[in-house]
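We append the chain.
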Amino acid sequence: MANKTFTIPDIGNFDSVEVIEIHVKAGDSVKTDDALITLESEKASMDIPATFDGIVQELLLKVGDKVKQGDNILSYDIIGAKETKPAETKSSSTKPIEPTNNNDDAYDVVVLGSGPGGYTAAFRAADLGLKVALIERFSSIGGVCLNVGCIPSKALLHMAKVITEAEDASHHGIKFNKPEIDLEKIREWKNNDVVGKLTGGLSQMAGQRKVTVIEGYGKFTGSNSIDVEDKDKKTTKVNFNSAIIAVGSKPIVIPNTPDHANIIDSTGALEFKDIPERMLIVGGGIIGLEMGTVYDALGSKITVVELADGLIQGCDRDLVRPLQKRMEKRFESIHLNTKVVEIKADGDNLKVTFENKDGQFEDTFNKVLISVGRTPNGKLINAELAGVNVDDRGFINVDRQFKTNVPHIYAIGDVIGQPMLAHKATHEAKIAAEVIAGEKVEYQANVIPSVAYTDPEVAWVGVTENEAKQNNIEIEKSAFPWAASGRALSNNRTEGLTKLIFDKQTKRLIGAGIVGVNAGELIAEACMAIEMGADAQDIGLTIHPHPTLSESVAMASEVYEGTITDLFIRKR
């Protein structure tokens, strides 16, 4: 036997982490990979595993202690086999990465951009045993989604839901006082308790995976190199064998819009500096309507202007209708088939000129949110110096393995085209990383779901009715109204609808749409059903829990099969 001391290994960028649990005691027999202790930072918790087979002699810390890398955990005696070093993650590749750069300091993979696609690609590549660098221009990992997009907006939408549900409770005989809004506390909660924990957790996992995070603005200087300029204008050259472009997108700016503090984009809306009395949202898409939902709940009078004839273009009208009906009751006004002709500063306010078929009209607002879509960042990284083709709009064309026209340079996420969604980017990221590591994989997903996290939520996946008509796809559909759902009735939210679309020939599910509370959670069942080639019987004969909103998917299938008993459908 040999007496040894076991210490805290590399735990990322943390120098004072609390011990919250100890899993062993003196005299215990321990095997490699057994959890010894659990640590918890403000961002995440983690187990520290043993790298030895032996017997614990003495614990050298206690619950509540603050520890860092190198601090002693326990002393132990080795039994039998020699002590092992912490395991290195080996690639399960069928073929090792083929270097295209003879520089010894080159990374196997450099990922440009650390959004959901970027950090996923970096982490997956590291897990496969590759030497990885992750370049991010901002100080925290996570990109738009985690910092100024998906995550903070959902935090605020949750807050808005609490407020509106309290208002609706008055219809059930429960009345609450008007909420007191503390913007500073809301910002602190959003930034620290939500965004900070997630981005901090990502930084920790980057350290655990030995991913080198380089802060600065990265641009290609050749087919195997990127220059990264930090905030002090200092440039670092990063060499690579393979690269993954994951630079995302940015909000579209309307030409000739004045530079005014109260004209904001989605990032500005999430900063939450104030609650304007009257707010105009230019664009009736998902992002604008989500922000409208938040500010409406907080007391702003919301006006929406949309150039097209309906909100959320691309989604079937029967799904949008319940949302629009509720918004028409809550919002000040919704102008469809209307364009913004001019926005002029009027002191702190903004005078806006609109135009529709009846002519021009004006109105004044305290704040204007421009939300008319996003444009890719493909033209901002000197991709042409690496030989990568970028089209006039900033998109980069790729194949099913996400290779660009330069075989060792890949692209994923918003920069390769619609839909610009985080869950699409993360799926693509794993494939790109695995291809680089030698795996024989390619993109094979059939569908990508879309969700508007409004109130009610709207979610759809696969073929829509509109798409079927445009492409002459023969379909059959069924729908279940939530007015017949016991759970929806008990929630007093009966405006919902679950619709399923089947291929007329194969009878398989090829599309679905749901509008109602938590539609974004419910759509996942339809996603899996489509991917698995399920038909109405497969779904309808699956026993769903009752009473739930999820059983509306089964009931819509029963409507299609003609076996529904929760509705009376007259036989033809």
Notes: The first helix runs from residue 116 to 127.
